[in-house]
């Protein structure tokens, strides 16, 4: 009998619970107080403070299934294995066990729970360099378990080193596990480092031993950690011998829903382009549903997470149009996604109406944008002398109006024009490089930054949150996002109008009054139910009985949180709001500093 996604999650949690791990809830897809990334990209991301030594309320051994979004490979979506949303099954040792426990457990789970034959497994280990020695210990552990020596490969940092998540932070050598698909070797040197498709990665054990410093050097962590990650979708695909993740039970009903609404050829005789289009729609609508339905769910906009969401939805609509999807189909496909996941992630069911209405609204906006793009294209053709659409113009149609290059080429051909494809690709490459540079700039501070300035600003967000609720006389004012660097804080909150200057001043005064009171910042560990009963503010997404940290600042604030904090409010200095502005529909944004 085939292992379902529900059974795989359950077996993962039970396997590690039996080995002393406490199951924890998936964190939000929208990271709290972290400027380094737009979305939670791995199971370890919300746990960085604990990997650095802060005690976790649930102990030293943890496991979970974490919601993740990565869009760096968005152009590869539509192949057999790339997804923008995925679930990461993870387990952690926070300064407890290390290699000699984790490697045998990994082998046991792969061979006894997933029933993978040992000769279908290959593993890689770190080959060593000036920063860290060759990992013979891990290789020997794998061999003792039953992996043949010819299936153990030594690879360098590019393949067998994880982290840090940003420019600095915890990192270390890893060992990766691969499923041998049975394809013949591409050459004598064929290994899991190849892209030939013989080996498919299914699990990664990271042995966090170092902290990467700002100067590029590595220093030992005060505690050694284990951080593992197994992609649920890819594992289901491989253990069942399926051709793609879109054949697994987390995707098949979505794909079927798309085909039932598409042109008949998509079911009867689909082209490669049709298959890719259906997969892109399935992936992007699934991801958009999770972003919109998250506890800190954002809506489409032109900045940050909202921009990524807008791009995903418009890309889904663009590809969906090529297979005959019609107005209103996309929100119905999202409804299928909610139905698939509502028992595992009940927040989706709670946000079902919001998810569908936001998708419909974005579809309406995009339709108008496309109409404007066609007008722009027509205007462009009227003024061109040499019947060649410049690459930069084709890129503008792509970037501003959502026109794929193929669409511009096709429309140009109908009018007897050609397109400077090479020029387009050059502009596209420049755009990608700028995006990557921008992403690198985001990797400053973040959860790994427990510096004094960051801790003070983090503490100030708690006081700001309470002051907003009090001044605006509205308990429905809730945090919708927070971004902290050592220089300033940025705080997004739910509120339907601009604040008046008087309200801004009143909020500043309340925060500064709390600072002047110089009360201690007290941390207590309690269950979610106890936190609720105590009147704490926060996202109550944890499972029943799960422990959380609650920070109390006198009568001024009581909030669930896991970040760094000052010892007393008096350490914060003077709080000043620099700007209050709109972030997206129904969400306001405050930028503030401590002086």
End-to-end separation: 63 Å
Average pLDDT value?
A: 89
> In this structure, how is the largest beta sheet organized?
9 strands, mixed
Shape: globular
Percent of residues in beta strands? Answer: 15-25%
- Structural class call reads alpha+beta
Given as residue ranges, the uncertain stretches (5+ residues, pLDDT < 50) are 438-445
Query: Tally of extended strands?
Result: 18
- The percent of residues in helical segments reads 40-55%
What's the gyration radius in Å?
25 Å
- Separate helix tally: 19
Write structural notes for this entry.
Helix content is 41%, strand content 21%. It is built from 19 helices and 18 strands. It has helices at residues 5-17, 48-51, 99-113, 136-145, 157-160, 232-239, 252-261, 265-268, 272-293, 304-322, 329-341, 346-350, 352-383, 391-401, 405-414, 421-442, 452-471, 501-517, 528-533, and strands at 22-23, 61-69, 85-94, 121-126, 152-155, 161-162, 169-180, 199-212, 218-231, 388-389, 418-419, 479-484, 489-494, 521-527, 547-553, 557-560, 575-584, 587-594. The longest helix has 32 residues, at 352-383. The protein starts with a helix and ends with a strand. The model is unreliable at 438-445 (pLDDT under 50).
